[in-house]
């Protein structure tokens, strides 16, 4: 190029006033780039010349807002990066020289204006272009930043910081920060942070920051971004340091409202988007931490903590003023920020009850929250409830004065659309309030407030109908079972004896007042009705007051219902056992008086209203019946509680009075259910079989009318009595409630006093279509099906003899029509239709077996079990002709019952076993019934083979004929699910090989099996030959061959079993593997089933090789393919592969087994093998040791020695993360399952490997591997128990390993510096991450190991003298090495940088006591004098005192 002709022309081109220098020339950047890359073009100080020109362009032209701006041109930054990289990679002398001219250049040309220009102008680029720019820019800046940063002024850094914040906000809003941008941010932020720490006049910077950049910083703090956490933290810290220096803190403390910071904050929040509100909690946290670090300027006397709290709460008040200034414009965001601010107050412990500055703001928050609970903004009300929970956790006294208003609001929570969401914080607030009053022993006050909250507030009387909202009132958090259970426990535990009588008196008084109010309203409403009847003329003016009085009557009734529930819980939970008998008598008199007065009057009024309302349709009796139901519930709750003996009352005539209500037509279901419950309870106390049977008849008649599907099909009942309304849905819910009463609560009474006909009636009800146990009910609540399901899974149900007999009698009757069906020609058309159509009877029978499926097998009567099984077989025949989805489900039910029944009997033989087996193997089925059908076929085939051995061949020959006639070629490759069982042929072969031998079978059976073999072989061989020829290209089509390959593996083994001369040629499996596997098994777990199928074929084909060399070669290929398939297999398929290899290994000869181990060990010791493959080889060796053939002990010992030598000599293996655990598992399995194969030289290798595993390391894994620690402890424990003879000669090694294990339990102390933390981390093994240390469970394992050192054991060896040995322990030989172990414990305990947690020390203590027991006094004293420092001596004395306390001295 002309520009490279001379140095002058090159420099002249770069300094030309235009770009390009002349028309037709390339741009200057290209000229500079070409000159830099041209090694033949020599320019004196070329790097300095080009870099100076480049930086000059960036500095002078970088402020232009145009597309030709050089700071936005990636080529400039790449050129700078190449030049700077070349400078930094030169030799030391050249590098020092270049640093001189580079520093001089950077002093002449400031770097920060360039950075500012890049950050400001890059916002005009698209997102992708920015990403491409930031990366080379950051790399270039990083190379010169350390040289230029000492000359940076804080003002310029602050400007770059602000530009950086604006770029970060833009990146966060679009695609998240890039790597290059993050690196630039780190450079700017760290430099600014360092400059601030050395800068004295921060006031000017603070003002500049608040004026120009606080909005961008707040926006960054408020948003969740993908920016690096370290960068984000540093940016936040810089902003905090700018805003909250000591001078700024003093200004905020003196006048927070007039402070410029809060004025700027309020201005930005009010004018910007509301997301800035989320920055307030962060600011408050930062402010609190800052004043705690700099508390000395604010403290006076000794009250520094209170002053810090006061200042923090002043900040809180200022933030609250900002929130209040927004009004309701951003209600949800305001309340969310308020919640987070209160969370800061809670977390930072800023509240002090003795400091008025902290109390007043929070009391104002309580008032705001209570007012918000009545707002129409659902989400704001939810957050306000959460705020109340936080305030209660801070100090419940803040909320205590407003508890009554909050509780009254709880009644209307379920009425709103957000009731379910707000119920969670409402329950939490109730629990907090209950906890507070329990601790302060002021439960009577809390109970009074709960009862007072039952009065409905007047605004809701006019806004909606009380009856419409009745269910919502009862669903209030105050009345839920969760809260009432907690209230009951609190009253029982924390009510003092002096409060018991007063509590009972208060409860009864409140209940009496509400009852009197209701009766007054009821009488007024009745008078209005009578007056209206006499006038017989209704006007609009008289209608309105009458309706208002009816609403007041309904409101009083609901108040009584709610109060009665709370009163019943409180009275039944009073701790009467803690008071005197005189006090008990007073409480009993008060409660009995309420029975005779309030309860009795309410019940009688309700009864009279129900009877009169039935005859007088114009009378509205809803309120009276609701109150009567609540009174009955109150009465029975007290009579069935643990305090029932104190609450007895003479109310015997109530049973007859309330029973009259059941004779009328339209009683309220809620009242009716309570009457039934009361009567059933009374009859259980005073049994009268005639009265009880009459009551049972009434209940059963109601169920027969209203139990679904006779009643409407409804949603599940939530268990609230308020849902039992007078509508059809309420009657259906009442039927579910009564069904539960009979089958759950009063099951014993129903069993003892109901007649057989009544018991059968209820079980006949279960056959209604609405009671479907097979339907998966996802609704929350109770239903008839859920009730029956729970009943059938209850032990109490099956222990009731009469009910159990009636249940089986009904199911036996429902299936009796099956006895008339001819098994040889089953058809629904031949079913007698006396009891309904054939289809309905079949459906009824299926339902019967659905119920029987839930019955325990032991509960079936012996006389009926065989009948049920026989009928189930017939029903299966009948269902086989239909193909609807319901039939598929019915088949699954019936066959599951048959499988369980035959398995329980232990015999699969029955009258129609041969025909049924033929039917199962030949009839099509769906995938849902495939598993249970396979079980039935397996059981019947097994029975057929056993019968064939006894001489009965018909059933087995028929099954073989069915298998022979099956078109396997089309079935196995078909994706259609509606075909017969495809695995029957494979099952037949497996059973034949497992349960018989060829000499014991008759010749005709052998010939039949041979013909089956030939038939299957002829169908499968062409299919597999096509697969081996690579004529199947599609992946999905290849995967269909998995079942074919599995069956082929059975065919090969089966041919050898029957001794058929026509065996398939070997090598087909190898051909298939080579043709298909390279492209198919590319680490795809979905293809793992195909891989395990090929492996099964390869294992089976080993039988086809006769030459020893061929068998060894094929065995090596099996191992290779095992490693390939394992790499991409799932856990289930991995287990299948292991099982296949285990079966193969057990059948090998000694020479073949030796060749197998030699091949695997050679592969293990070879270099260049991937680590995951090496782990697979270790697993293969473990498999071989577990499944070694007989007479191979020497081979196993040689393999063990070679493996251990490989582990020890190859330093890469223990350091590999993926290999540590497999190696330790191998050693553990060897020691525990083959202890006799361990020799002395093996133990030495084990010690070396364990010591290397526990060695300290400067690098650590991301997560602590607890399994390694447990494997090491397990290895030591096994060696101590089973091979004490080998351990006794290497006790120093054992002591050293235990010492390292104790050191591994240490953890760094909290709040250590970086250097101190690294000192501790460098002493831990590589597999322990110091951030996630070992825990209590690991110390428990180590303590158990130390305890086992003194246990007497027998050595496991193959030695004739082994039977004569005596149990011994390591106590005596180990006593010389105990001091080493104890000293390691004391060193870990006294390490100033580490800590052994108290839980860890507690778990180690039993093992340490065992070690102390091995010491004698002389050894102990010499150990303390010679080896321990002051801290160690103190720890030793403390340990020894504890040991002396628990040591057995021989007394007692």
Description:
It is a single chain. The protein has 1452 residues and is mostly helical. Helix content is 70%, strand content 0%. The chain is built from 69 helices and two strands. Strands 1-2 form a two-stranded antiparallel ribbon. Helix 38 runs antiparallel to helix 39 (838-853). The longest helix is centred in the middle third of the chain and has 39 residues, at 497-535. It is globular and about 125 Å long.
Outline of the structure:
The protein is 70% helix and 0% strand. It has 1452 residues and is an all-alpha fold.
List keywords for this structure.
two-stranded antiparallel sheet; 70% helix; 1452 residues; single chain; mainly alpha
**Number of H/I helices:** 69
How much is the average pLDDT?
A: 82
Residue share in helix: 55-70%
Q: What fraction of residues sit in β-strands?
A: under 5%
Give the low-pLDDT segments: 91-96, 300-306, 536-541
Strand order, main sheet: write it out. Answer: 1-2
Secondary-structure blueprint of this entry?
Blueprint: H1 7-14, H2 28-37, H3 46-60, H4 74-88, H5 92-108, H6 112-121, H7 127-148, H8 154-174, H9 179-197, H10 202-222, H11 229-243, H12 246-254, H13 260-271, H14 279-293, H15 304-326, H16 331-347, H17 356-372, H18 378-394, H19 397-400, H20 403-410, H21 419-439, H22 443-452, H23 459-463, H24 466-474, H25 481-494, H26 497-535, H27 540-573, H28 581-615, H29 622-639, H30 653-659, H31 669-685, H32 689-706, H33 728-745, H34 747-753, H35 756-765, H36 784-792, H37 795-799, H38 801-814, H39 838-853, H40 862-879, H41 885-905, H42 913-922, H43 930-950, H44 954-965, H45 968-971, H46 984-995, H47 1003-1028, H48 1035-1039, H49 1042-1058, H50 1068-1080, H51 1088-1101, H52 1108-1127, H53 1131-1146, H54 1150-1165, H55 1171-1186, H56 1193-1209, H57 1212-1215, H58 1217-1233, H59 1240-1253, H60 1266-1282, H61 1284-1287, H62 1291-1304, E1 1307-1308, H63 1314-1321, H64 1336-1348, H65 1371-1374, H66 1378-1390, E2 1394-1395, H67 1398-1414, H68 1417-1427, H69 1430-1446
Antiparallel strand pairs: 1-2
Helix pairs in contact: 2-4, 3-4, 4-7, 6-8, 7-9, 8-9, 8-10, 9-11, 10-11, 10-13, 13-15, 14-15, 14-16, 15-16, 16-18, 17-18, 18-21, 21-25, 22-26, 22-27, 24-27, 25-27, 26-27, 26-28, 27-29, 28-29, 29-31, 31-32, 31-33, 32-33, 32-35, 33-34, 33-36, 35-38, 38-39, 39-40, 39-41, 40-41, 41-43, 42-43, ...
């Amino acid at each position: 190029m002309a520009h490279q002709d001379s140095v002058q022309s090159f420099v002249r081109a770069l300094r030309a006033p235009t770009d390009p220098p002349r028309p037709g020339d390339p741009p200057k950047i290209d000229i500079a780039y070409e000159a830099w890359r041209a090694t033949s073009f020599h320019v004196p100080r070329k790097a300095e010349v080009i870099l100076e020109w480049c930086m000059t362009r960036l500095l002078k032209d970088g402020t232009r807002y145009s597309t030709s701006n050089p700071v936005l041109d990636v080529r400039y930054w790449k050129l700078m990066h190449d030049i700077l990289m070349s400078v930094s990679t030169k030799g030391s002398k050249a590098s020092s020289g270049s640093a001189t001219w580079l520093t001089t250049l950077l002093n002449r040309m400031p770097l920060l204006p360039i950075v500012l220009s890049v950050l400001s102008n890059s916002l005009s680029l698209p997102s992708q272009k920015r990403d491409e720019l930031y990366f080379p820019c950051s790399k270039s800046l990083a190379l010169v930043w350390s040289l230029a940063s000492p000359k940076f002024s804080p003002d310029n850094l602050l400007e770059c910081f602000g530009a950086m914040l604006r770029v970060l906000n833009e990146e966060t809003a679009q695609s998240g920060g890039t790597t290059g941008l993050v690196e630039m941010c780190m450079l700017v932020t760290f430099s600014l942070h360092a400059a601030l720490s050395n800068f004295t006049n921060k006031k000017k910077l603070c003002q500049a920051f608040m004026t120009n950049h606080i909005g961008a910083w707040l926006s960054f703090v408020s948003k969740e971004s993908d920016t690096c956490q370290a960068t984000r933290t540093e940016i936040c810290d810089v902003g905090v340091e700018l805003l909250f220096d000591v001078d700024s803190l003093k200004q905020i403390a003196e006048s927070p409202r007039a402070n410029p910071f809060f004025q700027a904050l309020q201005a930005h929040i009010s004018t910007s988007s509301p997301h800035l509100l989320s920055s307030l909690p962060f600011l408050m946290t930062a402010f609190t931490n800052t004043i705690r670090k700099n508390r000395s300027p604010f403290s006076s006397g000794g009250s520094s903590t209170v002053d810090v709290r006061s200042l923090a709460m002043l900040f809180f008040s200022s933030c609250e003023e900002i929130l209040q200034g927004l009004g309701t414009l951003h209600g949800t965001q305001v309340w969310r920020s308020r919640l987070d601010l209160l969370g800061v107050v809670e977390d930072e412990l800023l509240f002090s009850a003795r400091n008025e500055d902290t109390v007043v703001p929070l009391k104002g928050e309580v008032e705001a929250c209570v007012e918000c609970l009545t707002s129409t903004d659902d989400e704001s009300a939810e957050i306000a409830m959460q705020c109340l929970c936080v305030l209660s956790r801070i100090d419940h006294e803040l909320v205590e004065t407003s508890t009554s208003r909050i509780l009254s609001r709880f009644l209307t929570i379920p009425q709103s659309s957000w009731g379910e969401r707000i119920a969670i914080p409402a329950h939490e607030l109730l629990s907090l309030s209950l906890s507070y009053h329990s601790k302060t022993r002021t439960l009577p006050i809390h109970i009074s407030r709960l009862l007072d909250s039952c009065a409905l507030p007047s605004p809701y009387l006019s806004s909606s109908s009380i009856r419409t909202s009745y269910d919502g009132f009862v669903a209030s958090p105050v009345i839920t079972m969760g809260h009432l259970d907690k209230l009951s426990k609190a009253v029982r535990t924390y009510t003092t004896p002096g409060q018991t009588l007063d509590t009972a008196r208060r409860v009864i008084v409140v209940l009496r007042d509400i009852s009197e109010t209701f009766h007054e309203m009821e009488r007024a409403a009745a008078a209005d009705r009578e007056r209206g009847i006499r006038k017989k003329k209704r006007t609009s003016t008289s209608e309105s007051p009458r309706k208002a009085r009816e609403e007041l009557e309904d409101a009083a009734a609901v108040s009584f219902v709610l109060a009665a529930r709370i009163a019943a819980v409180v009275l039944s939970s009073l701790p009467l056992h803690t008071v005197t008998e005189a006090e008990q008598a007073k409480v009993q008199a008060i409660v009995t008086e309420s029975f005779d007065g309030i309860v009795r009057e309410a019940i009688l009024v309700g009864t009279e209203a129900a009877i009169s309302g039935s005859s007088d349709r114009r009378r509205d009796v809803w309120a009276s019946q609701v109150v009567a139901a609540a009174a009955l519930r109150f009465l029975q709750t007290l009579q069935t509680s643990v305090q029932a003996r104190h609450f007895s009352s003479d109310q015997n005539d109530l049973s007859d009075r309330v029973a009259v209500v059941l004779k009328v037509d339209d009683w309220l279901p809620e009242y009716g259910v309570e009457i039934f419950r009361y009567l059933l309870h009374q009859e259980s106390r005073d049994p009268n079989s005639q009265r009880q049977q009459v009551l049972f008849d009434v209940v059963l008649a109601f169920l027969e009318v209203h139990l679904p599907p006779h009643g409407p099909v409804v949603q599940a009942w939530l268990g609230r009595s308020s849902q039992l309304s007078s509508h059809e849905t309420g009657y259906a819910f009442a039927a579910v409630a009564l069904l539960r009463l009979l089958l759950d609560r009063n099951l014993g009474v129903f069993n003892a006093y109901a007649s057989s006909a009544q018991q059968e009636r209820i079980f006949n009800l279960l056959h209604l279509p609405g009671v479907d146990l097979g339907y998966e009910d996802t609704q929350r609540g109770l239903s008839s099906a859920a009730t029956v399901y729970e009943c059938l899974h209850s032990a109490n149900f099956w222990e009731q003899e009469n009910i159990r007999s009636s249940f089986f009698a009904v199911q036996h009757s429902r299936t009796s029509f099956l006895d008339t069906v001819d098994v040889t020609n089953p058809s629904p058309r031949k079913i007698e239709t006396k009891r309904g159509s054939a289809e309905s009877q079949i459906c009824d029978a299926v339902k019967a077996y659905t119920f029987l499926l839930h019955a325990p097998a032991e509960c079936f009567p012996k006389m009926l079990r065989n009948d049920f099984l026989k009928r189930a077989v017939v029903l299966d025949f009948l269902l086989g002709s239909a193909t609807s989805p319901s039939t598929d489900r019915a088949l699954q039910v019936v066959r599951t019952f048959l499988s369980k029944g035959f398995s329980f009997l232990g015999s699969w033989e029955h009258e129609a076993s041969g025909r049924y087996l033929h039917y199962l193997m030949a009839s099509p089925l769906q995938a849902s019934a495939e598993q249970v059908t396979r079980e039935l076929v397996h059981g019947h085939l097994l029975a057929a083979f056993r019968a064939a051995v006894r001489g009965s061949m018909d059933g087995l020959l028929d099954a073989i004929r069915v298998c022979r006639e099956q078109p396997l070629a089309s079935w196995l490759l078909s994706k259609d699910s509606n075909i017969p069982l495809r695995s029957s042929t494979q099952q037949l072969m497996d059973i034949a090989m497992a349960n018989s031998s060829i000499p014991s079978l008759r010749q005709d059976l052998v010939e039949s099996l041979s013909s089956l073999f030939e038939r299957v072989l002829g169908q499968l061989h062409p299919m597999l030959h096509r697969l081996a020829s690579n004529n199947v290209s599609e992946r999905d089509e290849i995967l269909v061959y998995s079942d074919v390959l599995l069956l082929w593996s059975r065919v090969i083994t089966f041919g050898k079993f029957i001794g058929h001369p026509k065996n398939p040629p070997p090598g087909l499996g190898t051909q298939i593997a080579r043709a298909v596997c390279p492209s198919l098994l590319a680490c795809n777990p979905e293809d793992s089933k195909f891989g395990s199928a090929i492996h099964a074929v390869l294992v089976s084909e080993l039988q086809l090789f006769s030459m020893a060399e061929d068998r060894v070669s094929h065995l090596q290929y099996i191992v290779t393919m095992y490693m390939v398939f394992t790499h991409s297999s799932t856990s289930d398929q991995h287990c299948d592969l292991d099982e296949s290899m285990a079966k193969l290994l057990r059948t090998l000869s000694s020479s073949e087994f030796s060749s197998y181990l030699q091949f695997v060990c050679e592969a293990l010791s070879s270099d260049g093998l991937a680590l995951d493959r090496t782990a697979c080889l270790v697993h293969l060796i473990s498999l071989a040791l577990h499944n070694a053939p007989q007479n191979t002990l020497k081979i196993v010992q040689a393999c063990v020695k070679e493996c251990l030598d490989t582990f020890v000599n190859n330093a890469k293996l223990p350091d590999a993360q993926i290999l540590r655990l497999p190696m330790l598992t191998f050693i553990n399995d060897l020691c525990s399952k083959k202890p006799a194969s361990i020799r002395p030289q093996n133990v030495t290798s084990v010690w070396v490997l364990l010591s290397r595993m526990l060695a300290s390391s400067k690098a650590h894994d991301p997560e602590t591997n607890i399994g390694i620690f447990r494997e090491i402890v397990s290895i030591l424990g096994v060696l101590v128990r089973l091979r004490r003879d080998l351990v006794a000669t290497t006790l120093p090694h054992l002591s050293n390993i235990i010492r390292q294990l104790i050191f591994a339990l240490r953890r760094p102390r909290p709040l250590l510096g970086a250097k101190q933390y690294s000192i501790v981390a460098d002493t831990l093994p590589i597999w322990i991450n110091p951030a996630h240390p070992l825990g209590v469970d690991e110390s428990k394992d180590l303590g158990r190991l130390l305890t086992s050192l003194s246990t007497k054991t027998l050595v496991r060896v193959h030695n004739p003298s082994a039977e004569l040995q005596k149990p011994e322990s390591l106590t005596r030989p180990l006593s010389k090495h105990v001091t080493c172990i104890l000293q390691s414990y004391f060193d870990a305990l006294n390490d100033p940088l580490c800590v052994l947690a108290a839980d860890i020390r507690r778990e180690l203590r039993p093992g340490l006591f065992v070690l102390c027991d091995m010491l004698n006094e002389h050894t102990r004293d010499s150990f303390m004098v010679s080896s321990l420092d002051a801290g160690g001596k103190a720890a030793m004395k403390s340990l020894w005192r504890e040991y002396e306390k628990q040591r057995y001295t021989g007394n007692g």
